[in-house]
Recover the amino acids of this structure.
C-alpha cells in the first residue's frame, strides 16, 4: 500500500505555533502531528510513504529520515503553494501505475479504519477512480457537503450557506492512477491554485467517485483551538502519549 501525505503547508491558522516549525511538526501529546498520522497509516499496512514537503522542510526530513518504523519514506518538494491537487500531482512518479492512499499531515485515523477503507476501495476499483472518506457533521456549512447515493458521491458542495447536518469530506482518499490525468486537466481556482476538489467534482458527475464513512476515532487538527480540544478530549490508543 503506497501512501502520499501532504505536509508542505505553513499552518497559518496555527500561529504562533508555526512561526518556527511546519504544521506537521506541531506536537499533540508529545508527538508531531505527522508522526501521529503516520502511525495509523503504518498500522493499516503502508508499504511506502511519500511526504510532500515545503515550508521548513528540513525539520521534517531530519526528524523522519528515510524510514518510519520500518516503512521506507520518500520526499518531494512543493516549492510554491499551488493547491492540494498540485501537491498530489508531485507524487505521480512515486505512485507509478499503482492505486494509493492519500491524506494530510494534520489528520489522524485509527489504523483499523484505514485498512477497512483501503479494502473497500480496492474491492470497488472497477467502479471508482477515487474514493473519499466521509464523516457525519452537525453543521456542513463549516466544511462542505458530500451528497451521496449509497456509496456513490453525487456532488461536492463547498461550504453551503444552509446550516444542517450531513456528510463531509474527512480528508482520507484512495486514488487510482487515473486521478493524475484528471488533475492535469483541472482548471485553476480563482486564487490561482489547483484544488483536489476540482477533479473530484468531475468524477462525481461521472459516477466515478465513491465514499466510505469513518468509523472509530479520528482527529482533524487545522487550528490551535482544535489542537487544544484534541489534547483535552482524546486519549487511548489513537494518541498514546510518548514515553
Amino acid at each position: 500500500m503506497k501512501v502520499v501525505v501532504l505536509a508542505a503547508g505553513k499552518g497559518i491558522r496555527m500561529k504562533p505555533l508555526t512561526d518556527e516549525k511546519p504544521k506537521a511538526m506541531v506536537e499533540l501529546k508529545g508527538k508531531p502531528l505527522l508522526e501521529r498520522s503516520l502511525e495509523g497509516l503504518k498500522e493499516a499496512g503502508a508499504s511506502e510513504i511519500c511526504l510532500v514537503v515545503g515550508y521548513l522542510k528540513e525539520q521534517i526530513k531530519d526528524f523522519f529520515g528515510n524510514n518510519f518504523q520500518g516503512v521506507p519514506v520518500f520526499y518531494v518538494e512543493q516549492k510554491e503553494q499551488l493547491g492540494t491537487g498540485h501537491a498530489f500531482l508531485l507524487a505521480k512518479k512515486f505512485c507509478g501505475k499503482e492505486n494509493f492512499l492519500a491524506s494530510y499531515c494534520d489528520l489522524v485515523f485509527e489504523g483499523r479504519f484505514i485498512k477497512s477503507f483501503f479494502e473497500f476501495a480496492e474491492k470497488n476499483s472497477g467502479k471508482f477512480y477515487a474514493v473519499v472518506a466521509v464523516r457525519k457533521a452537525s453543521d456542513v456549512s463549516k466544511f462542505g457537503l458530500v451528497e451521496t447515493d449509497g456509496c456513490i458521491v453525487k456532488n461536492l458542495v463547498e461550504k453551503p450557506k444552509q446550516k444542517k447536518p450531513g456528510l463531509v469530506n474527512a480528508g482520507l482518499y484512495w486514488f487510482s492512477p487515473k486521478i493524475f490525468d484528471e488533475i492535469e486537466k483541472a482548471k485553476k481556482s480563482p486564487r490561482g491554485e489547483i484544488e483536489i476538489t476540482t477533479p473530484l467534482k468531475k468524477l462525481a458527475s461521472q459516477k466515478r467517485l465513491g465514499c466510505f464513512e469513518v468509523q472509530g476515532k479520528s482527529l482533524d487538527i487545522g487550528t490551535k483551538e482544535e489542537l487544544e480540544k484534541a489534547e483535552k478530549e482524546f486519549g487511548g490508543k489513537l494518541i498514546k502519549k510518548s514515553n
Q: What stands out?
A: The helical segments are 33-44, 57-64, 84-89, 92-95, 111-123, 178-185, 197-205, 224-233. Residues 2-215 form a domain with the Spore Coat Polysaccharide Biosynthesis Protein SpsA; Chain A fold (CATH 3.90.550.10). The CA atoms of residues 50 and 210 lie 24 Å apart. The chain has eight helices and 14 strands.
